[in-house]
Amino acid sequence: MAFHLTGKYPPWWEGKRFDKPIRAWASGVTGESTRDVVQAKLFGPPDRPEDWGTGLLPAATIGDISSARGRAGAIDMAPIRHITGGWSSLGFKSYEQGREKWQGSALEVVWLDEEPPINLYYEALTRTNETGGVVYITCTPLMGMSEVMRMFLMGNRDE
Questions:
Q1: Burial class for 94, CB neighbours closer than 10 Å (0-12, 13-18, 19+)
Q2: Backbone angles phi, psi at 114, to 5 degrees
Q3: 3-state helix, strand, coil in the chain (%, to 5)
Q4: Hey, what's the torsion of the CAs at 7, 87, 20, 127, to 10 degrees?
Q5: Do the beta carbons of residue 30 and residue 38 sit within 8 Å?
Q6: How far is CA 18 from CA 25, 77, 157, in A?
Q7: All structural domains of the chain
């Protein structure tokens, strides 16, 4: 996510590249897990905003952050400086918000931390259809052969 937001790809990167600022969402199961895992990896400790910029996103790339309401230390939106001079936009979502809160936006990247419900996975794909963007999931498939895992392991065929 940091590579895509900043446009600073290492020489070994073989994945998708964006040559302009992007719009992205990073998400987790709950607002708390999104803050404590996803946000912390990108920005640094959520309980110490003075240390934001010690995660995967350097402090010099982080613009004026909008805090989430009702959740201490949580970020709602953050502009991230892209190497072109423009600003990428990073928003945070949680699965507990429900599918309706995921509608409407065209995005280049969606990061789903932990396996999402199938309807949110489809909603994430829909957000990237218009842009030719990417959706990625980081998880251990603890729910067994769920609908989402079946799509990756067996394709979209019925059994």
A1: buried
A2: 85, 155
A3: 30, 25, 45
A4: 100
A5: no
A6: 15, 20, 32
A7: 20-154 (3.40.50.300)
**For residue 29, which amino acid is it?**
V
Q: Kindly give, in sequence order, each residue whose CB lies less than 8 Å from that of residue 86, ignoring residues fewer than 6 positions away.
A: 20, 21
159 residues of the chain, pLDDT tens digit each: 999 999 999 999 999 999 999 999 999 999 999 999 999 999 999 888 889 999 999 999 999 999 888 888 899 999 999 999 999 999 999 988 877 788 888 999 999 998 888 899 999 999 999 999 999 988 877 666 777 777 767 765 554
SS3 118: helix
Residues designated catalytic: 114
